[in-house]
């Protein structure tokens, strides 16, 4: 069965990073979206080498779905 994909907004923060830990431990693929205004990527350092984890430095308020702009998986940084 395919792994569920979860998007965690604010995933570099206190609560979000623990949610990322939990979801990865449960076998999810996790996409973190965080603008690092308050959080820190060091909270996620243990996942940098995990292929199921990816990070997008992005203000969630600026993301919208339209024909002209959309989220692409390739936008996520897999390494950090
Ligand atoms: N050791 C502890 O017990 C401990 C430590 C830290 C915090 N806390 C508590 O945790 C609570 C705070 O945790 P939290 O996780 O809610 O806050 P947080 O600030 O840790 O996390 C919020 C995350 O959202 C991100 N963010 C904010 N606006 C964004 C936007 N527009 N787009 C994308 N990302 C955005 C921030 O960069 C940050 O990473 C407080 O109650 C605090 O007292 C407890």
Task: Give the helices and strands, then pairings.
Elements: E1 5-9, H1 14-25, E2 29-34, E3 53-57
Parallel strand pairs: 1-2, 2-3
The chain binds nicotinamide-adenine-dinucleotide.
**What are the secondary-structure elements, in order, as H or E?**
EHEE
- The rounded Rg comes to 12 Å
Q: Count the DSSP helices.
A: 1
| Bound ligands, named by name, code or SMILES | nicotinamide-adenine-dinucleotide
pLDDT averaged over residues: 87
Largest beta sheet, briefly? 3 strands, parallel
> What's the count of strands?
3
Read across the widest sheet, the strand sequence of neighbours is: 1-2-3
Strand content: 15-25%
Helix content: 10-25%
Task: Give structural notes.
The chain is an alpha/beta fold. Helices cover 15% and strands 20% of the residues. The chain has 1 helix and 3 strands; from the N terminus they run βαββ. The longest helix has 12 residues, at 14-25.
Summarize it.
The chain has 80 residues and is of the alpha/beta class.
Could you list some keywords that capture this structure?
80 residues; alpha/beta; three-stranded parallel beta sheet; 1 helix; 3 strands; binds nicotinamide-adenine-dinucleotide
């Amino acid at each position: 069965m395919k792994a569920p994909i979860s998007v965690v907004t604010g995933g570099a923060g206190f609560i979000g990073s623990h949610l990322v830990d939990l979801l990865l431990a449960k076998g999810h693929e996790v996409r973190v979206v965080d603008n690092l205004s308050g959080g820190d990527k060091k909270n996620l350092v243990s996942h940098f080498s995990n292929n199921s984890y990816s990070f997008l430095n992005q203000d969630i308020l600026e993301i919208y779905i339209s024909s002209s702009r959309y989220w692409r998986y390739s936008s996520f940084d897999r390494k950090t």
